[in-house]
Design a protein that fits this description.
Layout lengths: L1 E8 L6 H6 L25 E9 L2 E9 L7 H22 L19 H10 L3 E5 L3 H12 L9 E9 L4 H14 L5 E5 L5 E6 L6 E5 L5 H17 L10 E9 L2 E9 L7 H14 L13 H9 L3 H12 L20 E8 L1 H14 L3 H17 L3 E8 L18 E8 L6 H13 L9 H8 L7 E6 L5 H9 L5 E8 L6 E6 L4 E8 L5 H20 L13 H11 L13 H11 L4 E5 L10 E4 H17 L7 E5 L4 H13 L2 E4 L15 E4 L1 H4 L7 E3 L3 H8 L20 E5 L2 E4 H14 L7 E4 L7 H17 L2 E3 L8 H10 L4 E4 L1 H4 L11 E4 L5 H8 L3 E4 H4 L1
Parallel strand pairs: 1-2, 8-9, 12-14, 14-16, 18-27, 20-21, 20-22, 21-24, 22-23, 26-27, 26-28, 28-29, 29-30
Antiparallel strand pairs: 2-3, 4-7, 5-10, 5-15, 6-7, 9-10, 11-17, 12-13, 16-17, 18-19, 24-25
Helix pairs in contact: 5-7, 7-14, 9-13, 10-15, 11-15, 18-19, 22-23
């Protein structure tokens, strides 16, 4: 027996040449037999060709059975056909019975589920028909949805609005929407995560379209537009339950007797921008056909793409990304500290690049053999570099993700796009032309690797890839004319407008829509930016593009971001210019990180032998300091400590106090040093947490203080990873303008603190070879207390050694012995201690007094040492 199943065909699959004739063969008037030569050898005793045809009443199975009459007669074949039909009928009857059906692992080749898991999902979702994995970006969006607080808007809820005029049949639209869900399996998916954290999408066979109608026709005309805006905004703000299908809903708003607005709201996890116009055209076609899908081409399932993903060589692609990102040292963060944490508003600034400028830009792209998208990415890279003070930057870019070797991918509906990092190292001396051609080549080399996820790339690269800006380049505007044509003949209904509203979680997103005049839209979160800041960014971005076109042979570093008016204003307001030496745009955490990178094995902390306790002396390296402080920092971060917070530290000068200061700096919070002798259970004003040790609290209730050497807390700290804390670990990014230290009632930003430490290092001639000690007595306050509070940070930010003077050693021979035996080069101490020592102490080069000393004592010591009084500098 030869059996050939020819597949399933619809009216849309009939060849054009047959469709044009207007008729097709039918067996209604009898069978059409082809007479073959009796001497022709038969291929088989029975040759069956079967096909399923879609018709008005649904799909229908038909078969043609050929046989040699010298071997079989018609009765034999009729009997075989009857048995076959009986078997098919019995199978169909069983399949529709209450005990039939059910999936097994072999039915679900794209996922790894056992029978117990399948039955669990079937019990919860009775119409479960298939189970699929998630694409990389789907995984990211599902994670984002799960992490977004219920009180906040999910920014990945998108909305398409069709403006309709004429006679609109609401029930017909509803039926078309339901047919749309029936047509596309991936619109009927629920996204779930099992107990082990594995996520899948469950494809349901039956899902009812959520449909709602609102009538604003009776509302006064002057209020109608505002009310419409509120209704649509509220519809988009309403969150989806990711575990309940469908993640799509329809809202029809009647604004007047002949004016309607159809809002199709969906979660971005279902669709990308390419898919939305395809879906809207299908919706209008189904409206025309009154929901009859048989006349539409068969859908190419999103499952085909997920299957394609499973067949790719991910290791090779991840290696390619790791090579691209190798050597990237730090994130590219453009957003300042959160301005308003509760503000979910997404705003935008739009710039229309007129047709003449667009033509010049397009001409340049053609001349250099690059795309307009490459020009946009390069311009953003130059701007981001200027804003952050770095040449090597990274930002996100949305790629189409539709593989060219997947048949029919251009007509598929689903989420194909992916967000990937774009790294650009723009040498200021490199010409614009060289930058553009190099960037084009680098990005072209990654085209075959666009399908892997950002988190997987980070893992393979071995470092978090930090960026807070995203570029989206769209060259597929919705075909309004096609939509209008589709609806124009339906009882006078026309589409007068189409709009799509979507967003991302990135603080700033540049959306480029390519047309005869390019439209640049800068979408931003008001949580981070205000309109004035984004307007400046948009103006500077356009200046970079104009500079590209004006002189592609010029060096990248020569591009001027200031407009003539802005430059004139700055000159006018600045007055005479005096050269000023400033620190780089760094934070305390990055300065400390540079010390570690310079020489992690160098000594950082020296604990002398203590004759009173019999403890031996010991030194700690910068690597040990880094590891201990990273562990404590992670405990603090886990408690929500981060940028903008203040953490009080009440500890005697010790290894623990240095570790605490470094840990707070790594979280991005500001540290406030509290005299341990003045410790109280109440935290200083503004502090969210306090760090202390048991020797300070002496067993008293600690309130909001964190006793780091408490047995349980010390165990929690020791259990934390000791690897370096990065920006990805922090609760919030930290910038040079963020608070770093609180001294008395004054707060210094990171930039101010770095500048101050640099100035003190220069004044005290401190180097990495220095060894610094400090002595404090009761009554030291004001400038002296501030100097002591900063001393440990000053020493460790230099890469020098902090020497801890044993408790109780404050003057005389004991202090002299510590300074001598520990080769101390710098010492902070009060005048009462200085007067018990003799000038000329070997190795001691610099003395910093934390209070006033008699003139005679100063003169005596200044003859042999540098002597500074803290009140002179702080």
């Amino acid at each position: 027996i030869s059996f050939n199943y020819l597949g399933r065909v619809s009216a849309a699959d009939v060849p054009e040449e047959l469709a044009a004739i207007g008729w097709a063969p039918t067996d209604a008037l009898g069978k059409l037999d082809v007479v073959q030569d009796a001497d022709m050898p038969a291929n088989a005793a029975v040759d069956i060709n079967a096909v399923v045809s879609d018709g008005p009443d649904g799909p229908q199975l038909g078969a043609n059975i050929a046989f040699p009459e010298g071997l079989l007669d018609h009765d034999d074949v009729d009997e075989l056909s009857a048995h076959w039909i009986a078997a098919l009928s019995a199978l169909a009857k069983y399949a529709t019975g209450p005990d039939a059906g059910g999936l097994t692992p072999s039915d679900l080749p794209l996922v790894d589920l056992d029978q117990t898991e399948i039955e669990h999902w079937e019990h919860r979702y009775p119409s479960l028909g298939d189970v699929w994995p998630l694409s990389p970006l789907q995984s990211g969006l599902l994670f984002h949805a799960s992490m977004t607080d219920e009180s906040h808007v999910d920014v990945y809820t998108m909305q398409a609005v069709l403006d309709l005029e004429g006679a609109v049949d609401a029930e017909r639209l509803r039926a078309a929407g339901q047919a749309l869900l029936d047509r596309y399996p991936n619109l009927r998916t629920a996204f779930v995560t099992d107990d082990e954290g594995n996520s899948v999408q469950l494809v349901l066979d039956e899902v009812e379209l959520p449909w709602k109608q609102v009538d604003l026709g009776d509302m006064p005309a002057e209020r109608r537009e505002a009310e419409l805006t509120e209704v649509l905004a509220a519809e988009q703000a309403r969150r989806f339950d990711m575990e309940t299908a469908p993640l799509m809903r329809f809202l029809l708003v009647k604004a007047a007797e002949d004016r309607y607005h159809l809002a199709v709201t969906s979660h971005h996890i279902l669709l990308d921008g390419w898919s939305m116009p395809l879906l809207m055209q299908d919706l209008m076609a189904l409206y025309v056909l009154r929901g009859d899908q048989s006349l539409l081409p068969r859908v190419r399932s999103y499952r085909n793409f997920l299957s394609w993903l499973s067949e790719q060589n991910r290791d090779d692609s991840l290696d390619a990304w790791a090579d691209t990102l190798r050597g990237l040292e730090e994130p590219t963060i453009l957003a300042p500290v959160v301005r308003d944490a509760d503000n979910d508003t997404i705003a935008k600034v739009s710039v229309l690049y007129d047709s003449e400028r667009t033509a010049r830009l397009t001409t340049l792209a053609g001349h250099l053999g690059v795309t307009v998208n490459t020009l946009v990415q390069a311009a953003w890279a130059v701007l981001a570099g200027r804003l952050t003070g770095r040449n090597d930057v990274v930002f996100g870019a949305t790629v189409s993700g539709r593989p060219a070797d997947l048949p029919g991918v251009e007509s598929m509906v689903g989420l194909f796009i992916n967000t990937l990092p774009v790294r650009v190292n723009a040498d200021p001396d490199e010409s614009v032309e060289a930058l553009l051609t190099r960037l084009q080549a680098e990005q072209a080399g990654l085209l075959d690797h666009h399908y892997v996820g950002l988190s997987d790339i980070e893992q393979r690269a071995g470092t978090p890839i930090g960026f807070d800006s995203l570029l989206v380049f769209e060259s597929y505007p919705i075909d309004r004319e096609a939509l209008s044509d589709a609806a124009g003949s339906i009882d006078g209904m026309t589409i007068t407008g189409v709009g799509v509203k979507d967003a991302t979680h990135y603080p700033i997103t540049l959306l480029t829509v390519a047309d005869t005049a390019i439209d640049f839209t800068f979408k931003y979160l008001e949580r981070f930016f205000d309109e004035a800041a984004v307007s400046r960014v948009s103006e500077q971005f356009v200046r970079v593009l104009d500079a590209f076109v004006a002189d592609p042979d010029s060096a990248v570093g020569e591009i001027d971001l200031l407009g003539a008016d802005e430059a004139a204003r700055i000159v006018e307001e600045s007055g005479p210019v005096t050269p000023v030496v400033t620190s780089a745009a760094r934070t305390l955490a990055t300065v400390l990180g540079e010390v570690i990178e310079e020489d992690p094995s160098a000594p950082a902390l020296a604990v002398p032998a203590d004759a009173a306790t019999g403890e031996e002396g010991r030194e700690f390296s910068y690597r040990e300091l880094d590891e201990r402080s990273s562990q404590l920092a992670r405990v603090l971060i886990a408690r929500g400590v981060g940028t903008g917070d203040v953490v009080a530290i009440a500890m005697p000068r010790s290894v623990a106090s240095v570790v605490a200061q470094w840990a707070v700096a790594k979280t991005g919070a500001a540290l406030a040093v509290v005299d341990p002798q003045r410790w109280a259970t109440t935290l200083p004003a503004g502090a969210v947490l306090g760090l202390t040790v048991d020797a300070v609290t002496a067993g008293e209730p600690v309130g909001d203080w964190f006793v780091v050497d408490d047995e349980d807390i010390a165990g929690d700290i020791a259990a934390m990873p000791a690897d370096p804390v990065t920006y990805a670990d922090r609760v919030r990014p930290v910038e040079p303008s963020d608070p770093a230290v609180v001294l008395d009632s004054r707060t210094l930003s990171n930039a101010e603190l770095v500048d101050l430490l640099a100035a003190l290092r220069h004044r005290y001639s401190m180097t990495y070879e220095s060894r610094s000690a400090a002595v404090s007595r009761a009554g030291v306050d004001g400038a002296g207390a501030r100097a002591l509070a900063l001393e440990q940070l000053l020493v460790t930010a230099t890469g020098a050694v902090v020497v801890f003077v044993p408790e109780g050693v404050v003057d005389g021979e004991d202090l002299d012995g510590v300074l001598y035996n520990e080769w101390v080069t710098h010492v902070h101490l009060p005048a009462s201690s200085l007067q018990t020592l003799e000038p000329g102490l070997e190795d001691l080069a610099v003395v910093v007094l934390v209070d006033e000393a008699p003139a005679g004592v100063l003169a005596q010591w200044r003859s042999a040492h540098q002597v500074h009084v803290a009140s002179d500098q702080h």
